[in-house]
Structures are given as structure tokens and as C-alpha cells.
Specification:
There is one protein chain. The chain has 861 residues and is α/β, with parallel strands linked by helices. The protein contains 26 helices and 35 strands. Helix content is 34%, strand content 18%. Helix 3 packs parallel to helix 7. The N terminus is likely disordered.
Length: 861
């Protein structure tokens, strides 16, 4: 008894120690960012890193009942990613109710007009503000702390009214790992001549700046964390994403966007965005801030970035871009250095979209944060003032999407197909996006019904793109796309999908899927050698790589084909195989043609795990990161190799394959972005490229039996005089420079190519695939010397009119009959050159297999 009493007594003490002080704090002192961090946030040369930002928000939420922390998940490098939820204490207590209202307005099926009006009147505007996805664009991550403090402590009726109308979801950094990398780099070189300069590595472990190109494919953990909170939990009506741009142009970009405009986005989205943009412009001008521009550079066409993806899901979404300083170091900008030069501002001058040009002078972190505070607050104000209208608008857009799909055809995706794994992945991706997907009662067909709130998103992602040719003036060239011009998922992923009228079963007895049913992993034990085929998906390679690591042998005998001529791997039995196969949901022993009796392992064997070196330059290449990401996902053993190791040579000792990711020859060989001009200096240990020694080392590597794989522009290295191969870029302009856009412009489009699937690199590929093309590059080969074999593995059609599958292609006739993938072999040495983007941003699943094949080919005896 005595013991129990004392336990209870301690519990009371514990309660007092934990709960009481918090309650007391909440009513007394709310700390400023500077008080918690011990320095003035926003001061010159001062930055808070992510852990400090996180510490501040924790202190703030402990002290203020207007601020809560919601953990979004872990980052790539294991940091905790969070957002602050900011509103009145009462709204926060009722957040489940307001989430529910937001969800109903986003999918108003079954609601009457009166019910929608009532919900719009009762609901709160949910406003998502995301900061610092691009880690060097660091102002917003610092601003977030200041703004949160202001909102937590404001006592004026205007701010209190806004907080009562709006629930703010504030993400101080969409890329916490990168925020820390940039801050650490900045601190390290403070006070040196490299202060505020470029970093020699990507600011995201895998994808660097492309973290804002991932919002329809959802490959990265940070993207997925936020996607979950947005489309499954909060359903914000408005998304503001704050960025920074270059040094020498306007001071801030606000909406309206520039042309072109995506056909499928509801115009109400732009009307809502422009309402916010007008308030932003007004507030900036009122505060005496000059250099505000709209209708500039950033188009309304491309769906790959944060808030853009939301447009197709009936969400208002705004981008702002503030001019940068050198991270936290002020810049002095002479009026003569100010320049336009891009869409919406050709010359730096007063225009109606730029009525008050910034005159030049000092520009610092504090300015960036001040501009951002004003636009954030203007957005909050607009959300509050137009709360009901904006909420009604979201429901109205959803209803229009639903109605436009009534009686329309549905997307149908066969469960069994050439790459069933990719089909399942596409379906899982749609579900992750909040799209309704159904499975037929015989479980043979996935359906995406047309009558649903995200129908426009479905059409954009499943259909094909035709880039609008907007010309700013008669006889002028077209407006260039901001990013790529194609994102048709079935084409990119190599998935068979078509539209058809919904059957009786589809409409009545099919079931809504909340996750994709995965096949049971199974092993057919009667077979002498277990076999896995790529009808299972690219994940067959995960198994192959695992078996090789276990010391097994794998054969890729081209005579052994699975259903639909897929590639099959025959492997030596291993006790761990059953477990692996179950974990990967693969089926072993499903291929045809295995009873030939021939010892399949003897020939075409990959004898050991292939050791892959992936070149990493000090001018960061996002393609390097994406390649590393894709290869790691599929179980390849990849190590980065840098200039010094490359120059040292003797590469065969440690590697079987060297991959040069997509970068120009100047970047790889010289460590320079272009051939001439001023380039910012990096610390000496990060300067230069692989140099002539590195190129010689690569040639030596191939001569001694290694395999060199070059991705897109990196093929320029293997086409250099050192290698002396009978191949050149058929699309090189005068002096070897890239062709001008007026002659050739394929800015990231899907083009038809034919594949020789009797070649090891083409094994298991369909005869025709969609290749992602984004540069003037195609191969013109000629007959090699007798000791060398040349193979054209993929090539473009004879006629340009058969080429474009999705996107935009100007000058495509230059690709007629040109090679897209080629290989050269001499002895055991191999060079494989990919002209298109075979694993572009981890999106082009339909062509991954060619890269994987090229790597495994290196391991064949
Ligand atoms: Zn940015």
C-alpha cells in the first residue's frame, strides 16, 4: 500500500511538473525567434539551420495555444519534417471538424447547393504555405519563424479575425536536409572569398533542385509526406509556395502567371490566384516596396511543381519568387546591372506588369524576408476576406470536373500486361494522389472513372500533351515552356491504358481500391532453375541483384522469353530465394520455354554482382542524383566516383561499369558550365573536372574490359577524339555547338523509338517505346574497324510525322533515321550511349530496363 501511495504521489508531481508550467507559459511569455536562437534572425550573415528552426517552433508551440506542430514524416536523411498549424485555439480544438468540411468541399458528390453553401459558410479557409523547397532560396525558412511569432502574439482585431477565418499550415522547409546543407556550407566559408557562393553538391541527397519537379510522380519521401497531408488529410483550398530567383531582375514575382496556360485547369483557379496576386501587389506597393512584377517567366502550363499539381485538383495555388542575395550576404547591385531578358520583361524598364522598377542598391536577406512577410500576410488577408467565395469555388470546380466526366469514357488498365509491375505502380500512384480507382469484379482490369473531382488531373496525367504555341507578337517565335513539355504517365511508364465506355460491371460491381492488391510471391519448385520475368515489372531486377549478391548465378538467355516476349532471368536455386520472392511479390517459374532441357545457366550468365561507379562532378548534376536513386531502388551496387579517383585511373580494379550522368562535356572534363565567360570560383578541392587524364582513364577502362555507359549529353565524352569511335552527334550545329531553338526544339517530349530487342541492352523491351527527349542529340554511326562491333540498339522513325507521342517537337525531321541508343564493343570492353533520357527524374519507367540491361551486360562472361 505504502508503495502504491508513493507511486501515485510521484504521478501527481510529474503531472505538476509537466502540465502546469506549460499552461503557465501559454498565458505569459511567447519567445521571439531571436530569444530562442540567440541571434537576430534575418540579420546579415546569420542563418538558422533546420534544427534551430525546429527548436524555435517547438518553443513557440509550447508557449502559444495558437500554434501546434504536426510531424509530416522523416526526410531522406532521417530528419523529422514538420509543419506548424496556426489558428485560434478554438479552431485548433476543432480541426478535425474543419478538415472534414474541407474534404467534403473538395469532393461534394451527394451534396445539395444549400449544403455546399452552409459548409462554405461554416468552414475555415485552409491555407498551406510552403517554404524553402529550393534550399539556397533560404529567406522563407527564416521568415516563417518571424511570421509565426507575429501570428502567435498579435492582439489587433484584424489579425485575430484572420486567424479566426483561416487555418494556416506553415511548412518552414520542404527540404529540411537541404536547408541544413546550405546553412552549414554557408557558415563554413563565411569570411572567405567563397562566402555565399555555390555549393559543389546537390542540396537534396538525391534530386537537388528537381525536388520541385516531383509532384506528380511522388518519388521522394519529402514529396510523399506533404502529398499525404494535403490530399488525404487537410484538403487546403490554397497553396502558396515561396521561392527566390536571380540577382539582377525584378525584386518579386507575384501572380498572374505568364503564358501558356494549361487547357484542363479550371479558369476559376487562375481567378482565385489573381485575387491573391492583386492583394500582394497592393500591399507591397503600399509598403513602398518596388520591383514587383507579374505575368513574367513562370507559366501556367506545367504540373510538376508543388502548388501547380494542385491546380488540376481544384486548388488555388500561387508561386512567389523574390530576388536572391548571396544566401545571407548582402549584395550591392549597380543600376547598370539590372536586366530583363525573359518572358514578360525583355528590357528592364517600366511596364504595366512592372509599374515601379527597383532602382538598384543593396539587397539583403532582410529585404527578402520583408517582401515575403508582406505577400504571406496579403494571402492570409485574402483567404479571410474571401473565405466563403473561395471555399464555394473549390466545390464548384469539383462539381464541374465531376459533371464534365458524366457519361464520359473511363481509363482502363489491364492488370496483366507487358510490365504488370509498372501498371500496378501507376495505379498506386493515382490512389496516392487521391484519385478514385476501381478494380473489376474478375480482378483483371483497373478502372479510373471519369466522374470524379480530380478528373482533370487524371486526364492531364493519363492523356497526351500538345504544347500550345503562344506567340507574343506576330512573326515572333513561340513562348518556350518553363520546364518539360510532356508527362503522359502511361507512355513514360510503359503502361498499356486506354479509354473506353464503362461496362455494366465497371459501373456497378467493381470495387473502389484503397491500395493496389499485390500478387502473392510464389516459387515453382519443380523447375530445375527458378526463373523470373520482367512481366513482373522492373522489380525483377531487384531479385536478380539480390541473387547475385548471395553468390548465385543468373542467366539472361534471349531464347527464354516470358509472356509478351518479356525478358526472363534464370537463376541458381538458393535457400533465401523463397523469402526474397515473397517480399518482392514476384512469381518465379512463370516463363514459357524452360523445358528445353538446355543448361540455361551455362551461357549468357551474369557471374557476379556488377560494381557500378557513377561519376559525380562538383557542378552538381541532378541526373547523377536521379540515376543513383533509381539504381539504388533496384538493388544495384552503386558508388560515386569523383574527379580525383577518375584521374588516378586503374578503374577496372574496383568497377565493372562507369556511368557518366547527363552533363555536358565541359562540365565533366573541365569542370566548367560553358566554354567561356565568368564563372564563380569554388574552393580549390572542388575545382576542375576529370581532365584529359580522366578521359584517358575511361578509355583505358574500356580497353581493359570495362563498360562505359553515357547518359544523354555525357555521350559527348565518348564521342571525343580520345575514343576515336565512328559516331558523331547528328544534331550538332556549327562548331559542335547545340543547334539553336529556332532549328530544333524538343524541350522534354515523348518520342517514338524502335528497339532491337535481340540486343542485350534491348532484351525484353517492346519493339516500340516512348523515349524522353530533351536535347539536340542523336547518333550518326558509321562502319567501324574490324576489331570493333557497333550496334544500333534504338532508333527514330523514318518519318518525322510518326515521331511525336506527347509534348512538343520542332525540327523533329532532323531525327529521322538517326540512332537513339548505340553500343560499341571491342574485346570485352563496351560503350553504351543513350541519346534520350532513359531514367529521366525516375519517371520514365518504360525505359529503365535498357539502363539495367546495359549494366547487367557488363557482368556477362
Ligand atoms: Zn525555386
Amino acid at each position: 500500500m505504502h508503495k502504491q501511495k508513493s507511486a501515485a504521489f510521484f504521478l501527481v508531481l510529474l503531472f505538476l511538473a509537466t502540465v502546469m508550467p506549460v499552461a503557465a507559459q501559454k498565458s505569459s511569455h511567447v519567445p521571439t525567434p531571436s530569444q530562442v536562437l540567440g541571434f537576430e534572425v534575418g540579420a546579415d550573415r546569420k542563418l538558422a539551420d533546420y534544427r534551430q528552426i525546429s527548436a524555435y517552433f517547438k518553443a513557440l508551440s509550447a508557449a502559444s495555444d495558437r500554434v501546434q506542430i504536426q510531424v509530416l514524416g522523416k526526410t531522406t536523411l532521417g530528419e523529422e519534417m514538420f509543419m506548424a498549424v496556426i489558428s485560434t485555439p478554438e479552431n485548433l480544438r476543432n480541426k478535425a471538424k474543419y478538415q472534414d468540411i474541407a474534404r467534403k468541399l473538395a469532393d461534394p458528390r451527394g451534396l445539395s447547393k444549400d449544403q455546399i453553401d452552409a459548409l462554405a459558410s461554416e468552414g475555415k479557409a485552409i491555407f498551406l504555405l510552403t517554404c524553402n523547397i529550393h534550399s539556397t532560396e533560404i529567406g522563407s525558412s527564416q521568415m516563417a519563424m518571424e511570421w509565426a511569432y507575429k501570428l502567435a502574439t498579435a492582439a489587433d482585431p484584424e489579425t485575430l479575425r484572420r486567424l479566426n477565418d483561416v487555418i494556416l499550415l506553415l511548412v518552414p522547409s520542404l527540404n529540411p536536409d537541404g536547408e541544413t546543407m546550405v546553412t552549414e556550407w554557408y557558415r563554413k566559408y563565411l569570411g572567405t572569398k567563397y562566402e555565399g557562393g555555390a555549393m559543389p553538391y546537390l542540396y537534396h541527397h538525391y534530386v537537388g533542385h528537381d525536388d520541385n519537379r516531383d509532384w506528380y510522380m511522388l518519388t521522394q519521401i519529402e514529396t510523399r509526406n506533404v502529398n499525404q497531408a494535403v490530399y488525404h488529410e487537410w484538403f487546403p483550398q490554397f497553396w502558396l509556395d515561396e521561392h527566390q530567383m536571380g540577382y539582377y531582375g525584378p525584386r518579386i514575382y507575384i501572380p498572374p502567371n505568364a503564358d501558356p496556360v494549361a487547357k484542363l485547369v479550371n479558369p476559376l483557379v487562375h481567378r482565385g490566384n489573381n485575387l491573391v496576386g492583386a492583394a500582394m501587389g497592393w500591399r507591397l506597393e503600399e509598403a513602398g516596396k518596388s520591383g514587383v512584377i507579374y505575368n513574367y517567366s513562370f507559366d501556367a502550363y506545367w504540373p510538376g511543381g508543388t502548388r501547380n499539381t494542385g491546380w488540376w485538383k481544384n486548388m488555388y495555388g500561387v508561386l512567389t519568387e523574390v530576388a536572391s542575395a548571396r544566401i545571407a550576404t548582402p549584395m550591392q547591385i549597380s543600376p547598370t546591372e539590372l536586366q530583363g531578358g525573359t518572358k514578360g520583361l525583355i528590357n528592364y524598364q517600366q511596364q504595366i506588369n512592372f509599374p515601379n522598377p527597383w532602382p538598384g542598391g543593396t539587397w539583403r536577406l532582410r529585404d527578402i524576408m520583408d517582401y515575403e512577410l508582406l505577400v504571406s500576410d496579403a494571402a492570409l488577408e485574402t483567404m479571410s476576406k474571401y473565405r466563403r467565395e473561395l471555399l464555394r469555388g473549390v466545390a464548384r470546380m469539383a462539381e464541374e470536373a465531376i459533371d464534365s466526366g458524366v457519361g464520359g469514357q473511363w481509363w482502363t488498365i489491364p492488370v496483366d500486361q507487358h510490365d504488370a509491375g509498372a501498371a500496378r505502380h501507376l495505379v498506386a500512384l493515382m490512389i496516392e494522389h487521391g484519385v478514385e480507382v476501381r478494380l473489376s469484379s474478375d480482378k483483371q482490369t483497373f478502372y479510373i472513372p471519369s466522374r470524379q473531382p480530380y478528373d482533370r488531373f487524371v486526364e492531364e496525367m493519363m492523356g497526351i500533351q500538345r504544347y500550345p504555341e503562344v506567340r507574343p507578337a506576330p512573326n515572333s517565335g513561340i513562348l518556350e515552356p518553363y520546364d518539360v513539355a510532356a508527362w503522359s504517365l502511361p507512355l513514360m511508364m510503359g503502361v498499356e491504358a486506354k479509354k473506353s465506355w464503362p461496362t455494366q460491371d465497371a459501373r456497378t460491381t467493381s470495387t473502389v481500391l484503397h491500395e493496389v492488391p499485390l500478387p502473392e510471391g510464389s516459387v515453382e519448385h519443380t523447375l530445375k532453375y527458378p526463373t523470373v520475368c520482367t512481366t513482373e515489372g522492373n522489380s525483377a531486377f531487384i531479385l536478380v541483384n539480390a541473387v547475385l549478391k548471395l553468390g548465385g548465378k543468373v542467366s539472361v538467355d534471349p531464347a527464354i522469353r516470358g509472356a509478351d516476349a518479356s525478358e526472363c532471368f534464370t537463376m541458381t536455386p538458393h535457400p533465401q530465394l523463397d523469402g526474397l520472392v515473397k517480399k518482392l511479390h514476384l512469381r518465379l517459374g512463370s516463363s514459357a520455354g524452360l523445358s528445353s532441357g538446355k543448361d540455361a545457366i551455362a551461357e549468357y550468365a551474369i557471374a557476379k554482382p556488377v560494381r557500378v561507379a557513377l561519376y559525380k562532378s562538383y557542378i552538381p548534376s541532378m541526373d547523377e542524383g536521379w540515376t543513383r536513386f533509381v539504381l539504388e531502388q533496384y538493388g544495384f551496387d552503386v558508388k560515386n566516383i569523383e574527379n580525383k579517383q577518375m584521374r588516378a585511373g586503374n578503374l577496372n580494379a574496383a568497377y565493372d561499369v562507369v556511368i557518366l550522368p547527363d552533363s555536358s562535356r565541359e562540365v565533366i572534363v573541365d569542370g566548367r558550365q560553358g566554354r567561356e565567360g565568368y564563372q564563380e570560383e569554388l574552393p580549390p578541392e572542388y575545382t576542375g573536372g576529370i581532365g584529359k587524364e580522366g578521359v584517358r582513364a575511361l578509355k583505358d577502362f574500356v580497353d581493359k574490359g570495362g563498360t562505359l555507359i553515357t547518359l544523354a549529353r555525357a555521350s559527348e565524352v565518348a564521342m571525343g577524339e580520345e575514343f576515336n569511335l565512328p559516331v558523331r552527334n547528328a544534331l550538332a550545329g556549327a562548331g559542335g555547338r547545340p543547334l539553336p531553338a529556332s532549328d530544333f526544339n524538343i524541350p522534354g517530349s515523348l518520342l517514338r523509338v524502335y528497339v532491337d530487342n535481340q540486343n542485350p541492352v534491348g532484351y525484353g523491351m517492346p519493339k516500340e517505346v516512348a523515349a524522353f527527349v530533351d536535347a539536340p542529340l542523336a547518333f550518326q554511326t558509321s562502319s567501324p574497324a574490324p576489331d570493333t562491333q557497333r550496334s544500333v540498339i534504338a532508333w527514330y522513325p523514318d518519318d518525322a510525322k510518326d515521331m511525336l507521342l506527347s509534348g512538343y517537337a520542332h525540327g523533329a525531321e532532323r531525327l529521322e533515321r538517326k540512332a537513339a541508343v548505340v553500343s560499341f564493343t571491342r574485346g570485352k570492353g563496351k560503350i553504351v550511349m543513350f541519346g534520350f533520357r532513359v531514367q529521366h527524374r525516375a519517371q520514365t519507367e518504360g525505359t529503365f530496363q535498357m539502363l539495367f540491361n546495359a549494366i547487367e551486360w557488363a557482368g556477362m562472361e
